[in-house]
Each structure stands twice: as structure tokens, then as C-alpha cells.
Specification:
Helices cover 8% and strands 38% of the residues. The chain is mainly β and 240 residues long.
């Protein structure tokens, strides 16, 4: 529904089904509460709540001791906690100390993220993604098969596929590291001053440390951006 958040829509559906939406998982739970279940608003439906109501009694907590689910002796579901809304992991996501995962993050594959990073809101990690410490993959960012060094900021509306990105790199809004030729042919890349066949039809960029890519920069497939390079907004980086 246009103009209505997922959380508000799910809360309205809960009320229609006779349930109460509770948005603070640390809130005190009274003895009279029949059941308490923490779920993701991304996947939640009143039908799922009704199914949970049929489960046995008990309690589940995560490694940090935070309540995930508690079922009392009653038969009716009275309260539903929202978990971290809209975080979807199909595969594995490992994050370091102090890393924040915001709503709308989708992981399809395996992502290893260092300390003090921020993911999201609304970013998409595909394939195998490794990020160093102090990095940002923000709003509308898609990363696919990337290795990223420390302190690199890709804050909004950018794409990088099959790329190696150094440390202290900044992507201006809308920057794209493309990885596919229109004709589907093999990529070539400069190595030791020679243009070499890579044997790959998907190949992004190799970006050195301290690079600054202006807003809406497009880096063509298989290009090497040297350390410390800057591009102007709207530039197409073709290399040498």
C-alpha cells in the first residue's frame, strides 16, 4: 500500500486478527500474557502468528540473552514483538563488533563484515562479499562478489559487481562498477602494461586505496583505478 510502512501495515493486520503489536522487545511481559513471540516484520503475517499460537510452551533467547520467543500456558496469542524489521538472510551474514544492520538489508550468499560498519537501510549483498572495518554499504546499494578494504564508504544508490575495492575509497551517489559486456564476451584487463584475456565474462573493477569516485561515475568492466585517483561527477572511467 502506497504511503504505508511495512510495520504499520502489519500492525493493522494484527489488530484485525485481535492481536497487539509490541515494538519494544525489552518491554516487561506480564504473567497474564498468554504468549510472546519476536518475529521479523518483513516476514510476519497474522496467519504466522496463529500458527505460532499452536506451539508448545517454552522460551528461546539468542546468544546475548535477548528474548526471542516465549510461549505461556495459554492458547491465544496476545502480543507479538517485531524483531529487526526487514532483514532477510538467505545464506550467512557474519558481522563484527559495533556493526549496525538496518532495516531492508538482504543477503543472498555469504557476507563477512568487519567491526564498526553500517549496512543499510535497503542494501543487497549477493554472492560472496567481504568488507573490512569501518565500512558503509548504505541506502540502495548492491554489492555482488566483492572484496572491500577498511574505511570504504558506498553510502547510497550504487552498484559494484565482481570487484576488488581498496581501503579509504568513497563512492559518490549513483556510482556503478559494471561487470558485464553487452555482447557477453570475455573481458580483457591491463596487467604489467599489457592487455590480457581474463577468461571471464563477469568482471568488475580493481580500485586502489584512497580513490574518490564522483557522483554517477561509471567504471567500465575490467578497469583498474589507480590509488588516489579522483573522477568528476558523471564521468565514465575507461582507464588507459
Amino acid at each position: 500500500m502506497a504511503g504505508v510502512s511495512i510495520a504499520a501495515y502489519c500492525a493493522s493486520r494484527l489488530r484485525e486478527a485481535g492481536f497487539e503489536a509490541v515494538f519494544n522487545p525489552e518491554a516487561a511481559v506480564t504473567e497474564s500474557a498468554a504468549e510472546v513471540v519476536e518475529v521479523s516484520m518483513h516476514d510476519f503475517s497474522p496467519e504466522a502468528a496463529a500458527w505460532l499460537a499452536s506451539c508448545g510452551t517454552g522460551e528461546v533467547r539468542n546468544e546475548e540473552g535477548r528474548l526471542l520467543a516465549r510461549k505461556g500456558p495459554g492458547t491465544g496469542l496476545s502480543r507479538v514483538f517485531s524483531g529487526r524489521p526487514g532483514v532477510y538472510v538467505l545464506g550467512s551474514l557474519r558481522v563484527g563488533k559495533g556493526t549496525v544492520v538496518m532495516p531492508g538489508v538482504v543477503v543472498e550468499g555469504s557476507a563477512w563484515v568487519g567491526d564498526g560498519c553500517r549496512l543499510g537501510p535497503n542494501c543487497h549483498l549477493r554472492g560472496y562479499v567481504s568488507m573490512g572495518n569501518g565500512c558503509v554499504a548504505g541506502q540502495g546499494v548492491e554489492l555482488k562478489n566483492c572484496i572491500i578494504g577498511d574505511g570504504t564508504f558506498i553510502p547510497h544508490l550504487s552498484y559494484a559487481g565482481d570487484s576488488i575495492i581498496g581501503s579509504d575509497v568513497n563512492f559518490g551517489a549513483g556510482t556503478v562498477c559494471s561487470n558485464f559486456r553487452h555482447d557477453g564476451g570475455e573481458h580483457r584487463m591491463m596487467a604489467a602494461g599489457r592487455l590480457e584475456i581474463t577468461g571471464r565474462n563477469k568482471l568488475g573493477a580493481v580500485i586502489g586505496d584512497h580513490v574518490r569516485l564522483g557522483a554517477s561515475t561509471v567504471v567500465l568492466p575490467g578497469r583498474v583505478v589507480p590509488p588516489g585517483a579522483w573522477t568528476m561527477p558523471g564521468e565514465t572511467f575507461t582507464g588507459t
